[in-house]
Write a structure and sequence with these properties.
Length: about 180
Amino acid sequence: MDLSAHPPGVPAGADADLVDGLAALSRALVGITAHTLATLDVEVTLSQYRTIVVLASRGPVRTVDLAAALHVHPSTVTRTCDRLERRGLVARHQGATDRRVSWLILTESGKSLVGEVMRRRTAQIRELVRTPEAAAARSLAELVEALAVASGEPSERQWWHRWEHCTDLTPTSAAG
């Protein structure tokens, strides 16, 4: 099975280069966010961070609405927000007219964390945009791939090749 260019069942098309570049760039951006969280030495997972990012842009929200925005079950949001509340990043408030409804909002600490991660992430993205590889790109697809590669992320083609061999006992060539 040759998956070195595309995942199974995904045909190559006119937009293949752009889609491949965006897939690689999305991995890079997740990596940048994870690295930023690690440098801040906070005990927040990526899914918890995503929760507080959504709260920063939409809050205050009801649990059910946050679950819909995150595409998860409300019980998942409840458990996630329980942890975030214990860390002082999220607060719950009961509705004034219906005490069964719980409204979720960021605390000042949660707001500060999101702001700091966003500032640091933006600075890292700015550095990627200023690389010679990004400046040399002649198309959107080339720019997106250049940004991913400049971040240290393998191209989509390389990633699928490495994925194909990730269970092999012998290492494969990094160029492959």
